[in-house]
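Trying the structure run again after the queue cleared.
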Amino acid sequence: MSFFHISPFIDSSPLAAQCRRVLTLFDADTYTFRSTPNCRAPFLVQTPSLIATNLLKSKLILLTSLISLLTLSNGSLAGGYAYITNQGSHDVSVIDLAAHKVIASIGVGKGPVGVAVSSRLQRVFVSNVESQSISVIDSISHAELGSIPLQGSPVAVAISPDNSTLFVADWYMDTVIAIDTSDFTRQRTVSIGKAPAGLAVSPDGQTLYVSNRDSNDIGVIDIQTMTVKSRIAAGEHPFGITISPDGKRLYAANVYEDSISIIDLTSGHTEKIGVGTRPYCVAVSADSKTVFVTNTQDDSVSVIDAGSNKVIATIEVGGFPEGIDYDAHSHRVYVASWSDNAVTVIDAHTKKVIDTISTGQQSRAFGRFILGN
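Done. Tokens:
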């Protein structure tokens, strides 16, 4: 049994620089490709006895590895896709986040609004308000596989961390539906406040939060039992909600109050801060330090420092911005603009608009719409 030091072939490449590690492998009697847990670059493992006798073979493997490494290096730069629901054109625009181009337009039901994505299931779920259904999209082929019929009018959709359950907020029926993702006919329903709109699932998968727009509160649901545990007062007409990646805070956009509610999920303490006119949706940076809020009547995004709970910047974006999501890969913020039929791209570090991408009609993208690699 021997131990070997393994190095990437191209030590000068950025990818290799991230992957320089000393690994130990056992019984390495043949050439074998391995990789580190944090890097997909291929590595060549050799035993001393084979180095001299298999020179030709090693050259061939080296050539193959170089090609693979370059391919993977280029692929690692891709940030995935954004799925933008277009309520007016009844379709979903698929944006390649590396190229900033729409690569597909997927026809769905009537009036698509909400969106939830799952990389594990390779699925995208879209709520169709007018046709009272959930469209199920294959994220590989970018095609609609079918739909889940519902009785009411679905708005927000969200997926559980373990990908086993799809949650749907039914705007008209004042209910939340939990759908088994392995069998769409298996559904559980719980009554909640008036006009449930936004949904957010705790990182541990135990609690579902629901913004009840016409009840001016946030419903707290135990996912295992699908029972309402409590209601937390919010501002007037809370709509879009999200939980910070560290699981410590919930943010709710209070549409008629021009504010957001900040709820400490440990202590229960609630605080409000003013933003732009008619805030709609909220996104939080991957490190939980920065909050982004769309303001539909200001055509802007408010940027909030989560440490001080103060607005530190206001960014002009496309007309009537609604859905917003943060791409942890590129550290960019994507904003769907309803009246401009477009998505505005913001650099989260500089807080500047860097691109605008044309989409379908009346883009909304209500929910977590970015599917990373």
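The chain has two domains: 14-76, 81-371. Worth checking whether this holds up in the mutant runs.
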